[in-house]
Amino acid sequence: MSTLTLAPVSAGEGGPRVPASLPAPAPVHRTVGRQAAVHPSRTAVRAHDGVLTYGGLDQRANHLAHRLRAHGVRDRDTVAVCLESSARLLVALLGVLKAGAGYVLLDPAHVRDGSALPFLYGSGARVVVTQELFAGVLGGARLTVLPDVTPASASSTAVLPPASDVTHADTAYVLPVRGDRGVSVPHTVVDRLAADGRFLPVTAGDVVLQYAPAVADGTALALWAPLMAGARLVLPPPGELTPYELAVLAREERAGILRVTSRHLSELTEAGILPGLRGLRCLVVAGDALPPDEAARVAGLLPATRVIETARL
Fold first, then answer.
1. CA-CA distances (angstroms) from residue 208 to 41, 167, 236, 301?
2. pLDDT grade, residue 15 (50/70/90)?
3. Three-state DSSP class for 194?
4. 195 pairs with which residues across the strands?
């Protein structure tokens, strides 16, 4: 695979400016692990397949990390993950990082139609963390499939993560670009973007509803920033929600931050549902930039809500 490396952006290069006073960056999984150590009983993830506390997420990821090591995964390897939106998706991603590897997150829809396979085979991943639904498509001579990653599958015995010398400069994930090309994103980038409130201003008391596709650009920040801050991450069930269902979910979970695509936002607006989401502190819009007239309409309907368009950053 032809892989580019995305380095942290510093002043003078154009793009995000990170305050010089920020603490030294750390690998994503170690920051999440510190939250688990301090707040083990706090809810970390709510999804259709279960609820995970920070302690539960951390322990299940530790168990998976040891399974990955037993399957030959070592520091700075690449592991593919193909799971639908779920609590076990976070277990899988965190487990890969704790095993010392970087992950490639595959779109289940693209796995079904075969379009993700060239990138998978070019990524160098020899292990795929997936569910039975996709095991038959992904299994092959070059791959070892670990199909059982449900939150309930981990032993109740507490274990420490495997020993690893991975640093903030190593790859956290590989973002597909086109064909078999990818961009290697180090932990530092996720750490710095999470610390920059212009991108996703999340705090420990927030509930963050992540509805944009789990494999879209920017999703790494949307998944990790809440968990690095000690907030609660809410994942919707797989598939499309109607605007009404999305609004109900946001209200039931008391979400303060909602991340949607520009298409989903347009659907909420056209359905007349957006005024019912005035309790949102922040609305993050991924994907295409909003037309100026639509952006003005959204601002008028949600006057007290901060609207962040990631396409403009």
1. 18, 27, 11, 20
2. very low
3. helix
4. none
Rounded Cα distance, 155 and 158, in Å: 8
Residue 151 banded pLDDT, cuts 50, 70, 90: low
Count the alpha carbons within 13 Å of 146 in the hemisphere toward its beta carbon: 28
Confidence check: pLDDT of 91 > 70 = yes
Beta bridge partners of 105: 81
Strand order in 144-146's β-sheet?
A: 3-5, 181-186, 171-178, 102-105, 78-82, 127-130, 144-146
How many alpha carbons lie under 13 Å from residue 203 in its C-beta half-sphere? 4
> Contact, 246 vs 211, CB < 8 A?
yes
272 vs 45: CA distance, rounded Å: 29
274 pLDDT more than 70: yes
